[in-house]
């Protein structure tokens, strides 16, 4: 029953607008400050205030995204309007329209009627455009929304229909310039880490060879003349074992250093690749790729 009354009330509001004002209003674009537009909920049926504010705010933001104007809506508008709300026949009273425009500091108003159309979040929005200075009024095509997620898309698509006299937001004129060049290839070469590992390999090899020869010499001396090692056989045995162990450690260090040096040398090269850099005009864009 409430929905039927809302539809009847909406029809009566539209019917009460003089025929001379229902034609598209003349274009109001002029040099200077941006046009100021306010989205004003005139009638709401079966919708929570929070959702009404959200839809009105989304509508205002969508208008700004498409048109070169200033728009306000949502909670800011509701706080500025009288606490008791607007009279149902505000559109029929030039003084009421002028008061709303003055309160909101807007030159044009979009009075919206929001009705819950049933289903999962569906809303029908009927809009009447009003010029505050001349009280010219024009009804705009209805907008049907099935969910909050599509509200912004539908509002932006309808922006030029709601405000056909408003200038479109200018698109960026700057072009993005991209300049590319090939970085030179780098052959395999010895780096500082590879020099360090190579030095460790040489030192390890020297230690291994030196202590290995020493251990071998002590062993051969005892093997050729066992009587010479009878008195200090235990000490000689320990010395040979110690020298042999140090030699083994030296060889391991040499092998590890040699392997590390080979890996560092093999991975030190760099193939030629493309550098994408900004030119004198446009935004900075960079990218790289191997070929």
Structure in words:
The protein is built from seven helices and eight strands. It is of the alpha/beta class and 291 residues long. Strands 2-1-3-4-5 form a five-stranded mixed sheet, sandwiched between helices. The longest helix has 34 residues, at 233-266. It is rod-shaped, with a radius of gyration of 43 Å.
Whole-number radius of gyration?
43 Å
How many alpha or pi helices?
A: 7
How many DSSP-defined strands?
Answer: 8
Strand content: 15-25%
CATH class of the largest domain: Alpha Beta
Major sheet summary line: 5 strands, mixed
Give the SSE string.
HEHEHHEEEHEHHEE
Please bin the fraction of helical residues. 40-55%
Tell me which CATH architecture of the largest domain applies here.
Answer: 3-Layer(aba) Sandwich
Taking pLDDT < 50 over at least 5 consecutive residues as the criterion, the unreliable ranges are: 1-11, 17-31, 281-291
Main structural class: alpha/beta
- According to CATH, the homologous superfamily of the largest domain is ABC-type transport auxiliary lipoprotein component
What integer is the average pLDDT? 79
Order of strands across the widest beta sheet?
Answer: 2-1-3-4-5
CATH topology of the largest domain: Rossmann fold
* Outline type: rod-shaped
Question: What is the first-to-last residue Cα distance?
Answer: 72 Å
């Amino acid at each position: 029953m409430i929905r039927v009354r809302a539809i009847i009330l909406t029809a009566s509001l539209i019917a009460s607008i003089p025929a001379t004002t229902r034609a598209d209003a003349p274009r109001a674009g002029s040099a200077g400050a941006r046009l100021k537009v306010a989205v004003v909920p005139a009638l709401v049926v079966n919708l929570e205030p929070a959702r009404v504010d959200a839809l009105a705010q989304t509508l205002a933001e969508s208008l700004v995204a498409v048109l070169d104007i200033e728009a306000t809506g949502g909670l800011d508008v509701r706080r500025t309007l009288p606490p008791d709300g607007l009279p149902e026949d505000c559109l029929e009273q030039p003084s009421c329209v002028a008061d709303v425009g003055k309160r909101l500091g807007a030159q044009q108003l979009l009075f919206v009627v929001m009705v819950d159309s049933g289903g999962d979040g569906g809303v029908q929005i009927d809009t009447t455009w009003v010029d505050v200075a001349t009280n010219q009024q024009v009804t705009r095509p209805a907008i049907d929304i099935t969910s909050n997620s599509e509200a912004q898309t539908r509002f932006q698509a309808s922006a030029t229909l709601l405000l056909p006299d408003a200038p479109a937001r200018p698109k960026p004129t700057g072009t993005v310039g991209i300049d590319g060049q090939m970085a030179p290839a780098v052959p395999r070469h010895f780096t500082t880490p590879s020099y360090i590992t190579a030095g460790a390999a040489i030192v390890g090899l020297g230690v291994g060879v030196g202590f290995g020869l020493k251990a071998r010499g002590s062993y051969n001396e005892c093997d050729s003349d066992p009587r010479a090692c009878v008195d200090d056989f235990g000490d000689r045995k320990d010395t040979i074992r110690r020298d042999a162990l140090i030699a083994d450690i030296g060889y391991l260090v040499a092998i590890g250093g040699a392997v590390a040096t080979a890996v560092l040398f093999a991975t030190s090269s760099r193939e030629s690749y493309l550098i994408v850099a900004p030119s004198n005009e446009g935004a900075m864009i960079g990218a790289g790729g191997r070929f």
